[in-house]
Amino acid sequence: MSDSPSSKTAVDDVVQLSLIPAIASLSYVFWVVGGMEMIERLAYYGVKAVATLYAKDPVSKGGLGVSMTEFGTILTCWAMIQSVLPVFTGGLSDRFGYKRTIAASTVIKICGYLIMAAFPTFYGFFAGAVVLASGTAVFKPGIQGTLVKSTRRENSSMAWGIFYQTVNIGGFLGPLVAGFLRKMEWQYVFLACAAIISLNFLMLLMYTEPGQDTREADLAAKDAAAGGKPGFGAALSALATDSLRELGKPHVWVYLLIFSGFWFMFNSLFDVLPAHIEDWVDTRDIVSTLFGTGGAQNEVVKFFIVMNKDGTEVLPEGMLNLNAGLIMLTCFLFAAVSGKMRAITSMVVGTLLASAAMFASGASALGWISVAAIGVFSVGEMLSSPKFSEYIGNFAPSDKKGMYLGFSQVSLAIGWTLEGQLGTRMYDAFSSKEVFSRQMLLEKGMSAEAVEAIPRGEGFTKLVELLNQPPHEVTTMLYNLHHPGTMWIFMGGIGVLSAAGIWWYGTWVPGAMLRAEQKAAARG
Question: Is the pTM of this model over 0.90?
Fold first, then answer.
């Protein structure tokens, strides 16, 4: 990207303030918004981090007792609603105000968690996920729009990095709460999340919407030019039309499409990797290294690492919590690093690191290899994900920040929807311990009717009983027979393609936008 004045466009990088001045320049409103996002993410990831485990858990243990493919149906609807709806709710935030939409979203999200708690069935969780997704779709544009309005281009890298850090404080604490409560009863997880998100009503009392007077004056001027303020229905229709018009611009939809590969990998980390860790990864080597062969006995240690009741294994949500923990502690440092890089370069490097982590996730069943893979993914995420939002926020028109940040969810929609379908189906086809266990039961002489009668999620338990061998030995035998880590090569390949697309975008878009601006100026 050229630095000459004649080639400047809306997507050009701006020289960022250094670490301390950038942090000092962040406003009071920015920190309030960060607090609201932290609370919302604490509740959200309290459910998201254990949703796969809840779905796989047999009904006898309080879970849904469904296959990964069936769970994929929920994920697909969840993804599409949460990610496509912001295309339109982003415009609502710009018109009706960020504070109002944040308050409305909090009410909707509380209802979603309560539905999950009240109806512990497949369709109950399905309905709760749909409501929760709707609330999240309303919440995101208001929060991110406020962030853009309360920062400057010179401190935007640090702002998005610290904002991402506050996201992951919530993302770190949520699984701790969920991991503790689900060992008592699954419904406690959902009730706790409903209580946690309600704290945002207190945060709203401290919130002042930046640029509200200017926004309202601009809207009034536009409405006057259009012949008066439109009714609610007419306003929605106009917003939808305007959103689709902006979304149809090539530099917008191409950007969103290319980055969807990263979101495919990101969501596989939370939707599929927990199942892989629970089924195949032996975390006893981690525990023995840290605490000796007897395991951990301290209850506080077991809570923060998220271990089983005996303190001999790390639970999947504890393994994944390394991601949020690393980001929570170090994201501001990586924000400073990425601030010294071109935005496109930072996203390419980050996406390639995340891809390498996908490859490593399937390379071994050793716990420490899984830890290393999650750590590498976390670094890649810190270099790419905040930059993705910062980049689109910077090239958005000044009066459409909420709308464009709503568009950012389209990229998530594509990646998450495809992952919800492909990832879960691939897991059942190539990696499911439950499926492999049922196959072996048939091979050992059990009738098809008897195997079919085994409750979902209890096939491995039945195989252990039949073989009369320790569970870890049976797991190793199945792992060596089926090589379940192979599917992660596909996951990593998606990321490599996305990184190549991001690099291509960075070389194509600035010139294309400049030519478009020159043509528009010539017509003017």
Answer: no
